[in-house]
Protein 1
Amino acid sequence: MNKQKAKGWFYVVAVLIPVLFFVLLELSLRFFNYGYDYREWVPITKDKLILNPDVARRYFSNVKALPYSIQDVFDKEKKKNAFRIFVLGGSSAAGYPYMPLGSFSRYLQQRYQMVYPQARIEVVNIAMTAVNTYTIRDLLPGVLEQKPDAIIIYAGHNEYYGALGVGSMESLGKSRAVVNLLLYLKRFKTFELLQDIISSVVKMFSSPNPKLSHGTLMSRMARDKFIPLNSEVFEAGVKQFEGNMSDILEMIKKAKVPVVIGTLVSNYKDQKPFVSKKAGELPPASKIYKLAQEAFEQKNYKRADSLFRYAKDLDMLRFRAPEIFNSVIHKLARKYGTKLISIDSLFESVSPGGIVGDNLMTDHLHPKLAGYELMGDAFARALNSLKIRPRGMRINYKPSVAHALTVKHFKFTRLDSVIADYRIRLLKNDYPYIDPKNKKPVNILIQPKNIVDSVAFDFLMNKFTWEQAHRFLADYYLEHGQPKKFVQYMDILITQYPVIKSYYPMITKVLLEHHRYDDSYRYFAKYHELEPNAYNTKWMGIIALSHKNWKEAIRDLEESLKYKDDDPQVYYNLAGAYVMKKDYKKARELTVKAISLKPNYTEAKALLRQLNSALGR
């Protein structure tokens, strides 16, 4: 080998050695499960997926109590009759403070299931509290891999203080390119190891920050609390929002997936500015807010609306998206041909004087339950206008009727209503609503008056999980002779956690005891999908038989016998189904089998006499 070639190989080996080292290091770290699980989707059963509860660790380094989604489950392999929508955004998209039941995505789920009963409806909401467009952009490729029929985006309020925002304590700087690169690198265990080493070194030379572990997440996330209108940080936030949203819509367009995006709405009228200071030539926000109130009282609504919006934009604490964000949304929707819903205009249309306030808002920007239902209706109509709908049989409701029925039967409990109320009380008992020094003790702020209040309080004090709170009340109502309420709370649990098998026998047992056979059928059918067994198919067959649907009855009862072939009740009912089919010979054979298993089976003996007579025996 000549010197030139040897020199070339030397450089190749010199490059390959460190590359090989990091490849082996990465593989070793993965093999030994080093660090956290950053996968986007994790299995909840062998054939169901859910957003990884730990995925927020990609975006939060300084927060201990991580936010998570409302835990929607969907099929690992998309079924042929599936209609799959993904919802992306922050806390408003997640349905705060009514989580997990009160989001507009749950409204969509229930409305589509009602209108298209034969379709497999999957509305998967992966929105989380305190995240912004960095999170949406990072999660989007994984969403597109799941073959959505449509995507809905409602985001923008967290752009400054949300994870990695320019004003957040989790900020990694103002460069989008750098932040998005770091998010990509976080997928590698080697990078996580490096982060952990740096973090350990930093902790050795710094003291813990008490602000990171006390107060609401809202109060903890705002680092650069004061961001004046048109300041450098303000403009960086606008560029961050526009740049990330442009990337998001570009990716969705390339994937040829329909998308609907909503403009942002907040409490203009009844939320005074959080921080009001004079900045340069700009007036203080409180002065403009006072003028807006005066204009509203004088019924000069057009002027009042303009002033309320200006006061919001002058508010230096940017928990509400500035008006320019809606301008950006409109511009990008035109650029990418995206379906746009003016949520702000919708809320204004049903607000006094056309100005949104406490009539539809729980706080500074989160809608009341009625507001989320309005949003759900708007998104459903938008998708319908794009001809994006489930395939198969449809119940031909007018949109207004479908909306009214969905609202009427919306799955929501008194417990969830009280939890939402308590969440807002706690939120407003902290910065930025009040000086933290003036916080009321929780036992003064919240004084439970009944069992529901007490359970809601215990949930917020972390004595119960959401699931345990609802189970406790379900059991309480059953023990106190209120089976209807027991069924209501168990139904809510099944709605939230449809893959927990133990719920189904609990609810069907009570329904059967109270002769609510038709109501029990859908739970047997759901349970059968999760775990086919003799008990489910037996009762599905019996209920079908009661409706004189002998074909389904025969199918289900014969399937039941495949799992358990010694149940006399199954043979007896199957005989009844064959009687309806007018196959008396088969019916007699089954009746004889039922009696052989249960010699004193009075009903079977009576049926046998009738069959013998019909067959001339």
Protein 2
Amino acid sequence: MRSLLSFAPVRFLKKDGLFLLFFAILAISYYDSVLDKGPLNHHLWRQTDCLSMTRYYARGADFLEPEVNIQLGDKYTTGQTAGEFPLLYYSVGQIWKVFGESYLSYRVFYLIILFFGVFCFYKSVRLLFKDHYWAVILAGLLFTSPVLVVYGVSFLTDVPAFCFVLIALYFLLRYHLEQTRMLFWIAMLFFAFGGLVKISSMVAFVFLFFILFIETLGVKTLRTKKVFRCSWMEWIGFIAVVLALMAWYVYAAHYNNVHKFKYTFNDIYPLWNPEEGGIPVLWKKITMLTSHVFYSRYMIFLMGGLLLFHLFLWKRIPLFAYLTTIIVSIGVFIYILLWGPLLGVHDYYFAALLVLFPGILLPFMWFIKTRFPKAFSGYVVKGVAALFLVYNFIYCINVVKLKTRAQEGDFPIVGNEEFVGTMRWLNWDADANWMRFERIKPYLLQIGVGKEDRIISLPDQSFNVSLFLADRKGWTNFETLVEPEKIDMLISRKGAKYLLISDPALLEQSFIQPFITEKIGEFENIRVYRLSPGMLN
């Protein structure tokens, strides 16, 4: 029996089995009808950009030569373009090479990353507080953020990047406790992964770099000792991460300049340059729509209250803990200043704000543990925390449904009718109007539109949504194809063979008339026309 208990998997289950069970229950509740689905809700534009790049890696694209469906590169002849470091796209592409293209394998791969991110956070809390219960509760609360849950198995890189940072923080904590160099380099590797796939995930890294700097000057941020040894190795590690990020983004800019095509808008979008309507309109969008995907209102209020309370903890907790909340909050504030207007529409940008969860809650929990140990260990506080976790879990399930499949229902726990109604309509729109491009693929082959034939898809204004779903290279209305001469150029000089019209109203426009003379098919109100040189004459 002792030999059995000493077997590593058994020890693992005995030690962390409660967390594994808890994570499994939450994951099954969240993802029971999601994992095998394609892009969902809105942000189809961004999701299909990621999927498009992954597909071409699966079909043989070189790692340093990413490409997508839309042919805007090299004078409308290629889809070669780069954005964030394609580590995840390439990895899934290799999985697809072996097992075939599948949304399920893509989402499961991201789910594995999500699991290890949350698991490493759980392990970090156990190491910090030596308390199994609070480790499970805090990890569970983290896993009730809808933005973490929804985009954790989406095709976007924001949440995987955050998870890489959580993994890095765990290994850095172990390095601090064990002083093993390998742990430090593993931490730096995962920080690099996080920053490379999403630069906005680096708030925690910048904070720790600052701690290394002030500790090198002689400050002891843990009262009687330091977090770092302030060695050349540590400085080299942090600088190496910065250089790795710079190297990729310099290469990506060069690659895009060579091919004259950039599919991501990597510039800042500052708060002082808001969209039409100014700050009041932006604030309404955030409060009425996107912030519901960050956390429940009660969780947001809790973190806001604890942030204000933390300002009065000067000298009551170690300097490192105090600076954690202050500097992480400043980092998030700067992030909002630089990209704030995007938060009114792109709720996945809230993934970068998840760093507030450990940045605020862990220093507060340290304060309670050291100053009020009876409350920290007491059944009353733990019971209230458990009930709060259950509430946030139920809230998260409801938001996940609204962000994925739900097209009806009231969802009273969410409360905001505008948010609920908007999400239900977006789910209907994605399924009724956009997924028909995926359903049309067999029909296109039946009417002679080959997989290598290039198409023009109108009035799709995205880069890749209809092109990826229909699995064809070509062009959309992203560059506003309202000039007959430009359409004629794509036909006669760039090889466009077919035109797909998904909105009947477009057929009344004069610029399209020369190109709709040879209709060869129709599928769910998507009309297909054959194109040939000289149609404009």
Protein 3
Amino acid sequence: MPMDGLMVGFAARELDRLLAGGRIDRITQPERDTVILVIRAGNENRNLLLCASPNNARCHLTGSKFANPLEPPALCMLMRKQLLGGRVVSVRQVAGDRIVYIDMDTIGEMGDHEPRRLVLEIMGRHSNLMLLNGEGRILESAHHVNAEMSRVRQIQPGLTYVPPPAQDRLDPAETEAGPLRERLARDADLPLEKRLAGAVSGLSLASAREIALRVTGPGGDDSDLDAVCEKTAALLRRLPEMTDPRVQLGEDGEAKDVFPFPYLSQDLSRQKPCAGVSQALEAYFGTRDRQDRLRQKSASMVRLLKNQVERCEKKLALQEEELAGAARMEEYRIMGEVLNANLYALAKGPAEVTLPNWYDPAGGNITIPLDARLTPSQNAQKYFKKYQKARSARQSAQEQKEKTLQELDYLEGMLLDVDKCVEESELEEIRAELARTGYVKRSASRRQQRNLPQSRPYRYLSPDGIEILVGKNAVQNERLTQDARPEEMWLHAKDMPGSHVIIRAEGEIPPETLKQAAQLAAWYSKGQRSSMVPVDYTRRKYVKKPSGAAPGKVIYTHHKTAYMTVEEADLRKMIRQEDR
């Protein structure tokens, strides 16, 4: 239910209280559907996030940092021209629906006051963000909608903004008992929460269920419809006073839902209080939105890598087949030598011949197929040629097999690295590495490039209070290992793609710290869900990178091996420190 009309109303009221009268000082657009307005209000800068993404559309204040394109998109440039220096007049929800109007007073080129309006429509895959002029015409939008895409409503610069088709529902702020009773009585056989969701604008089924519980009590007795409607109307009017935002946490500690006030219909023990609606929305959407965008941006890379892995596996099968065929080369040599040794006793014409095989320890015979058109000597030479060809093929196939295995190891490592990405900078490091090796083309467009911060490894704290670093990709692995001190402990899953792990301590390593580091090395490897994963560990000074090797490829000595079986529950118990 995160951004149903109920939550949008609470968010809009909070934003209006905090931002009204504030000056717009800066505008950025980190994504095609996301705009950040830096507003100076209440003697501090507040970052207003307006997002029209299909899965995570929302509006709230944010403290997160976003990477911006080197060249701002058209919407961003126009908003800077139209809105910078302007003042926020109001932020309001429209008729209890998932539409927010942000009205602004701006100064035009001639110094006169010009009204402007930002419209955020939070409607799933139809979500959009639009900038309107004083006459209600669309100046620009995050998504353009032409007549081919929708016959009902077009969204294009120059067109007059038309709100989405109105639904026959009541505005919660103006709901009276009489009209509500009329609507609820229409479908008396349906549960109360479904009737409320159909009658009141913006109510999701979860919010309607909460209101029904508060109105009827735990027993759910809604037989007295007049009393139900009176209580519901009073509750809806009282909503602004009930602001007490909560984030519902799952068993893994991650935010699973967000509520504008404690929901009695949900487990209260898992509802974490937040200082404001924006803080609650950011706690819920922040990681979720970042992960969704990473999945979208990495989808083509994952497909490419999987296709390349499949290609390598097919090539490997052919090379194995070729090696199996070359296994007969010794048989060809023996046949040629036996024929050569018995040329005096052979004549041209037979289709095969059986001769003593002195290579057989048991002293048996060997039957040799012959080409009746060739002399015995020519048949012997034919077998020698087959032998030479098979030997050359085996050598070549073995060399190609080694190259294919190395390529397969590299590609599987890249796939593993993509799965570990939590920031766009990490994804870009992998893309750059794939471009270096020729699997993807380098981006020539400055518009697509980002000023991304250098990615950072996972940081864990062992039971002994010692920091453990875990690389997320090949580039990070190399940087992590190079920067480690000589006496620090280095770990890696044996003979498989995985993360470099560094224990940030020298001298004797406590057993529990070493165990946790080995568990991390096993988990962040290709053997993640396997049992008894071998993990090698040694001092950093014994780890070397071969000349010309790919990033993250090393050789090491003086190592010991531990065998680790790690469950996801074990990982949740470990203390992971978030980068600040």
